Amino acid sequence: MKKLLVANWKMHYGPIKAGGWIRAFRRERLPKDVDISVAVPFVSLAAARASLGRASIPALAAQDCFWSEDGAYTGEISPGMLKEFGTEYCLVGHSERRSNLGETDEMVAKKAAAVQKAGIVPVICVGENEAQRKKGDASKIVRAQVQAAIGGLKADGRAPAAIAYEPVWAIGSGRPCSAQDAKQMHEVIRGVLLKKFGKASEEIRVIYGGSVDVRNISEYVTTTGIDGCLVGGASLDPRNFGLLCRAANPA
Ligand code: PEP
Questions:
Q1: CA distance 242 to 251
Q2: In what helix (H) or strand (E) does residue 62 lie, and over which residues does it extend?
């Protein structure tokens, strides 16, 4: 299975800067054996698509999505709207949305199902916070988050989702989770996926996110069971993200 590397710009880069990032990133030497995507703010999807032209690398991703196709949901964006930009992936349930906007497991599940139905791969973000880890509850919390989030997904040929294990305490903190600890949590996640999807779960990538940078990425991508990375801060510079993509190449 190819590694998956997803850049998450978070709330950075409107349409003007987005185009520049894409053009600069396209000048990087990019590995063929890594799937690369970039999650951009909604308002930057059009500019990113225009700068990509016919190119499909990096694949476009959104950072969120609503669960209905249309209707009285002022301010929301539907999966079908994302599809119009050729969006291939969509982050769902990022911890910053769970904590800043009160997104619940139930909302995450509805979003994941709607995104999949539209033919976009949901990248479902899960992860325990620091207090939960200290209490020894990390596995229990993450297992419950994954179980809830995948409730409405269907195993219909292509991988129904990717899961990003992102311990909250590691995001943007400069305190990454060790590859060995991440591996343990990925095994917990794999167990839940196997139970729901059986053999088809083997197609689902479980990636790690949380303070990934050029110094530590190779530890993650060389650890069995870690199928790639979700990268926030270290993806803001397109050359740096290019370096990460090359480092993720197993060849
Ligand atoms: C993220 O935004 O999902 C993330 C993992 O951020 P960072 O790489 O900055 O920790």
A1: 16
A2: strand 59-62
Q: Tell me if 94 sits within 8 A of 172, measured CB to CB.
A: no
Q: What phi and psi, each to the nearest 5 degrees, are found at residue 140? A: -60, -45
Active site residue 88: no
- Report DSSP state, residue 202: G
Name the burial class of residue 45, with classes exposed (0-12), middle (13-18) and buried (19+) by CB atoms within 10 angstroms of its CB.
buried
Average pLDDT of the residues in 81-97 = 97
Q: Are 160 and 116 in contact (CB under 8 A)?
A: yes
pLDDT at 102 over 80: yes
Task: State pTM to two decimals.
Answer: 0.97
Q: Is the CB of 148 under 6 A from ligand 1?
A: no
Task: Please report the pLDDT score of residue 157 as a whole number.
Answer: 65
Whether omega for the bond prior to residue 58 falls within 30 degrees of 0, making it cis, is yes
CA 174 and chain centroid, separation: 19
Q: Does the beta carbon of 232 sit less than 6 angstroms from any atom of ligand 1?
A: yes
166 is catalytic: yes
For atom 4 of ligand 1, which residue has the closest CA? 232
214, 240 Cβ separation under 8 angstroms: yes
CB-based burial label for 108 (10 Å; 0-12, 13-18, 19+): buried
